[in-house]
Write a structure and sequence with these properties.
The chain is built from 14 helices and twelve strands. By secondary structure, it is an alpha/beta fold. The longest helix is centred in the middle third of the chain and has 32 residues. The chain is globular and about 75 Å long. The N and C termini lie far apart (52 Å). The mean pLDDT is 96.
Length: 392
Amino acid sequence: MDDWKARTKLVHSGTRRSQYGEVAEAIFMTQGFVYDSAEQAEARFIEAGPDEFIYARYGNPTVRMFEDRIAALEGAEDAFATASGMAAVNGALTALLKAGDHVVAARALFGSCLYILEDILGRFGVEVSFVDGTDLDAWAAAIRPDTKAVFCETISNPTLEVIDLPAVAEIAHKVGATVIVDNVFATPVLSRVLDQGADVVIYSATKHIDGQGRALGGVILGSKAFIRKIVEPYLKHTGGSMSPFTAWIMLKGLETMDLRVRAQAATAQAMAEALQWDGRLDRVIYPGLETHPQHALAGRLLEKGGTVLALDLKGGQAAAFRFLNALKIVLISNNLGDAKSIITHPATTTHQRLSDAQKAELGITPGLVRLSLGIEDTDDLIADVKQALDAV
């Protein structure tokens, strides 16, 4: 299996067949498991084997198939699947940290990630320092000898800043800090963050892994010691595990993820190139454009520029709303990574809880919209966006 290419791993890795020899992965819809004897139950609670299960909150054969498959793709030793992407973010951070610990995080993050770092961790005595994620001097200045962890998104949401992960990881590892990375925008198809210095990788499986808007899910990947000794005890006792049916949906999503992501990234590149000089836009933000501030860095760290771009419309929120309302194919929704093209207005949705000053600092202007490209025909999507700009 180690020699298989990514697409093969996405179809076959981690498969566990029952005695019936099914082709599609079985859904083990059970909350508990039967033991042959009291002695077997006792032994399993002391240490369960790789195909021995206790309770669905602790693990399940269908969920384990998903964990093994995504770990094989990522090149991670192990994985723990969670109920949502934010359960994965919260689980990875909270399981590792305690009162008095210090964390350094990039300032440009998804709104819920900021809430966990600013509100929840702060409430329990964890000190968090925020920095400009693109400024290596800022990282170096903020990371201290007692820093426990650093956290960033490889491509930030929604302004698509690209972090120099190898450089940040080098700074963090000098003091023994754990590097935790949310790689949702870059995807495991286009980015190999463990090879670039990350210790822990987080995904919202709701996005590209499912890719069809069906279910919430998340996953944490890393070393076996981190997953089984730190993450698993926290999540199995606090209840953030993934359901078997969701795991089956995610397994089906993984089979086509490589094909979908590459098609979506190609469309995103074409869309960005078609719009980059449009006079009705103040900015077209996409790592695949030479005008992007971290274009060269993105070329080194990513296979392609990703599936998401941001457009900043002249005319502010009123123009942005007219644009969104004029779209015919692209859907207004706050998800991303879906087979359907989706757009949202971050200032009033995903990042609405931030103050005006915070939004301005992050570059989330009233005219900014985040566009996630789907697998529809590229020419149709470009035409739809242009006609909506005409309506503005």
